[in-house]
Design brief:
The protein is α/β, with parallel strands linked by helices. The chain contains 14 helices and 13 strands. The protein starts with a strand and ends with a strand.
Length: about 375
């Protein structure tokens, strides 16, 4: 079997809001073979930038577009192909959006392999340890504490027993930060509450907020610092009264390595649309070795949701799953199957590959560009 074609499709909702939500557009990678088997994957980054990395022509041996690198190769050799892509893009990649583009291809290769052998990806990864996982409703903060409280009540009424609020307007001032978390706790009742600061503080301010938020019994404080501040995370984690989570911005194993080596986090959040299955499996083993916990990050389409479920189900101590509830058709309508939690739990797909089917009518309706 050989890779015959790599198709890159960019989908976008008609009106993009000014908010921190990557569920408003999608970049799909579709790897097609001479045997008629197709695998698909997704990257969480600027879709047009990912498309450029796939489409780029040959420049020289370590500056080459992904399509040029992969067409004609055996798609079942995912490890070798990951290393080939990494080597031949090193002048514009290594720990950035190039790794995200590689991850979309890698996801498609694993989907294709599962379809070839008629097994789900979690079987290819060594076997699932969980058939379903407690899900948390992942949503943005309201404009103030009262609005945030009302949003929390909505998702508790929908059956979730865990909610995460994140990003703006967190970080504008101390009083508003505390008001937001207080409102979230009032709305959640005794359910699990997770807080995502959105990379807004220095380490000392983050420690003060962790101490202030402790009384609201939060399950973790996520991304309080900018992603590159590994020293700050290690310092904060050693002092914080609440668990510290981060990792969603990291692309691949090399990006995660300093955080793992420094034991800088309590919870490592791995996004399959920025790490792919090949590197996510490596990261899983490293994090388990140091006795920390793993969770997925996912705020995109059901493609990445399904990929995240396959991967997280193989993690020994998986305890909670990020379930984006953003009101976007990209999150809810891209696939025929509805990959969403029911009564606060989300089930792991068992079909071949990713175990999901693209809604081709939806793809045509929201398609803004395509290359192959």
């Amino acid at each position: 079997m050989r890779i015959e074609r790599i198709v890159c499709q960019v989908l976008r909702v008609p009106s993009v809001e000014a908010k921190t939500a990557s569920s408003q557009d999608v970049v799909l990678i579709r790897v097609q073979t001479d045997e008629g088997i197709e695998g698909f994957g997704e990257a969480d980054a600027s879709p047009e930038v990912v498309k450029a990395i796939v489409d780029a022509p040959f420049s020289h041996n370590i500056a080459c577009g992904l399509r040029k690198i992969l067409v004609g190769e055996n798609p079942l050799e995912h490890e070798r192909l990951w290393q080939k892509m990494y080597r031949r893009t090193q002048y514009f990649g290594r720990s950035s959006v190039t790794i995200a583009a590689m991850s979309a291809v890698d996801m498609a290769l694993w989907d294709l392999k599962g379809k070839k052998f008629g097994v789900p990806i979690h079987t290819l990864l060594g076997g699932k340890q969980h058939s379903r996982i407690k899900a948390y409703a992942s949503i943005l903060f309201g404009k103030d504490g009262a609005t945030t409280r009302d949003i929390a009540r909505k998702w508790i009424a929908a059956g979730y027993r865990a909610i995460k609020f994140g990003w703006e307007p967190m970080g504008q001032d101390e009083a508003l930060d505390i008001e937001l978390v207080r409102g979230a706790r009032e709305g959640c009742g005794d359910a699990t509450l997770l807080i995502d600061a959105g990379c807004v503080w220095d380490a000392r301010t983050a420690l003060r907020r962790a101490q202030q938020f402790e009384k609201f019994n939060i399950g973790w404080l996520e991304e309080p610092l900018r992603p590159d501040d590994v020293d700050g995370y290690a310092w904060l984690r050693d002092r914080s009264p609440v668990p510290i989570a981060a990792g969603e911005a990291e692309c691949g194993r090399e990006s995660f390595r300093p955080l793992i080596d420094r034991h800088a986090l309590d919870i490592y959040q791995v996004d399959l649309s920025r790490c792919g299955f090949t590197d996510a499996d490596y990261i899983k083993l490293r994090v388990q070795e140091i006795g920390a916990r793993l969770c997925n990050h996912c705020y995109t389409s059901p493609v990445t949701v399904a990929a995240s479920l396959h991967w997280l189900s193989t993690c020994r101590d998986a305890f909670i799953f990020e379930d984006c509830v953003d009101d976007s058709p990209m999150r809810h309508e891209l696939t025929i199957e509805k990959v969403q939690a029911r009564d606060g739990w989300i089930s792991v797909p068992d079909g071949p590959g990713l175990g999901i089917t693209l809604n081709e009518d939806f793809v045509k309706r929201f398609l803004v560009s395509e290359s192959q």
